[in-house]
């Protein structure tokens, strides 16, 4: 097993050699989310992602994992979060699924609406959509897919280098 993929005792892992994907199952524990972020960051650095891309991916990943743990699984440590990710030199893909009932992303209030500026909900989705090239929430709302695609050294979204 490569050094950068050392799961904690509460995490199970499978390396899918055919696709190069890393598949993990973690308990609904925010510290486990931190371990996943660290693993992904090391893989991004190994693939020469730039610091601003690593920051954005790490932040979006944190939001998605904490949402799965807190809102999806209701902090129930008996429920699991299923993660599959793949890092390649020009792209990062992740799929996160919790064991909750799901949600409708259209029901999340717009955090930029003046009446919602003081509320904490909705900011995670806003950040994910800002920093990632693509964000998709699969029905019934307990499964999220995100990708970050680099185009000629750019982040592929806003043309920033």
The string of secondary-structure elements, in order, is EEHHEEHEE
- Catalogue the unreliable spans: 1-10, 156-161
The helix fraction, in percent, is 25-40%
Which class do the helix and strand fractions yield? alpha+beta
Can you walk me through this structure?
It is a single chain. Helices cover 30% and strands 26% of the residues. Mean pLDDT is 86; it is low at 1-10 and 156-161. The protein is globular. It has a six-stranded antiparallel beta sheet with strand order 1-2-3-4-6-5, with helices on one face. The protein has a single domain, classed as Heat Shock Protein 90 (2-Layer Sandwich), CATH 3.30.565.10. The chain starts with 10 loop residues before the first strand and ends in a 12-residue tail after the last strand. The protein is of the alpha+beta class. It contains three helices and six strands.
Question: How are the SSEs placed, and which strands pair?
Answer:
Elements: E1 11-16, E2 21-27, H1 30-46, H2 51-72, E3 80-88, E4 91-98, H3 123-131, E5 134-138, E6 143-149
Antiparallel strand pairs: 1-2, 2-3, 3-4, 4-6, 5-6
